[in-house]
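Project channel, design review

CF: Before we commit to the Blastochloris viridis constructs, I'd like one complete example in the thread so the newer folks can see what an input/output pair looks like. Taking Recombinase family protein.
RD: sounds good, go ahead.
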Amino acid sequence: MKVSPITPMIRCAIYTRKSTEEGLEMEYNSLDAQRDAGEAYIRSQMHAGWMLVQDRYDDGAYSGGNMERPALQRLLEDVKSGKVQMVVVYKIDRLSRSLMDFAKMAGVFEEHGASFTSVTEQFSTASAIGRLHLNIILSFAQFERENSRERVLDKVAASKKKGMWMGGFPPLGYNVVNRKLEVNAGEAETVRFIYQRYAKTHSVLQVVKDLHERGTTSKTFITKKGTQREGQPFTVTAVNKILRNRLYLGKIHHKGSYYDGEHQPLVEPELWDAVQKLFSLSVKKKPGRKLGDSSANLLSGLLVCRCCRSAMTHTFTRKKGRLYRYYTSSAVKRGLKKGCTVGTISAPSLEETVIGQIRAIIRQPEVVSEVWEQVQSLGGVASEEDIRRRLLALDKVWDELFPAEQRQLVGLLVKRVEMTPQGARIHLYTNGLEELLRKLVENKEIGDGEYHCSDGAPQGETDSWTGVGSGPARLGYAHR
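CF: and here is what came back for Recombinase family protein:
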């Protein structure tokens, strides 16, 4: 008696997808319909050994334009592990609308011996003609997707020209009701307060401080996914954006043009014009200042306040014809933090401390010897005495260097300077001295008491620090 060969089992998975959330809350939705069609198709192929795996791969409210979909990623992992040998979809575009993405998935399927089939398009990638058919269909699917995108953009443009609100985060002063902006009375008062106070004080920073004193925060709202976004204390940037937003004048913006909006304006045209005039005047009053140039301020970009966790920026004032320079916490300066125990630091005093520590390192024979050994191990050719002579020459001419040259040397060695109530913590790059020594060896003029800047920065960094050195600063340095 002739025995029929045993048909090998093919483990099949059904993948379903829907682009939007609409209808997903229904008891029987589009994903269920796609799955039912897939199950029926697999039953029709039982004679070929097809068997449905129990896991479901459903992506609700996910676009087919990319592969960032949880169920799809889980499916691909199961294909790689051999758990799934055949992927069944209702239509090809449920799996992907991108030729590039589909090519990636097809590569995964082929590499791991899996195939793909569509219920409604009646083909399978198991054959050459099926793969050709697939490429043709995908080309049209991508063409339709791009056309759909252009139609959406055209619709958005036409709607905005009619003054319609087309979505996004709800602005302060309004609630979004039935896709339209409706005035939120309490928030509208805050918007008007911001405009009126700026028109009176001519200072955004003062407006921010006033808002903080009133306990006023930015908008609290709930996203489409049901997540509540709590209001935050106002910042200078946030207030600036409100003062320049023509939405409050009753306008809708689209690609550089403004159109009369359907929503009610919150600011009168006279107040708007007055505020914009003040903005233009304040810009004209800000000439370039050499003191504000980071190259003239030794620690710009390196100094942070440990107390309020913010950068410390350079500022200055004049009293009786004398100039006073300071470093102060940017958060305190903007009125965003109170009770900072570091406060304002004299810039010359702090810069002198940092320079003193760097020059102290240069003079330490044991430090120079250790770093010289590292340079030699990496192919250095200069003698220890030659390096020491160059370092001492640099120390002698330090005060004659241009500010930009001093700042480059500091940037070569110093990763950051942290200010605490007890003093300064100076954190150095682990290979900063090694880089400095390399540049001294390369720079032939150093031995004659000259120094010329060159580009470059150290590569290693360390956040660790130990108590090295003396004086008001605490020096953080770690040798490699």
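RD: helpful, thanks. Residues 287-295, 444-480 have pLDDT under 50 and may be disordered.
CF: The two ends are 80 Å apart (CA to CA).
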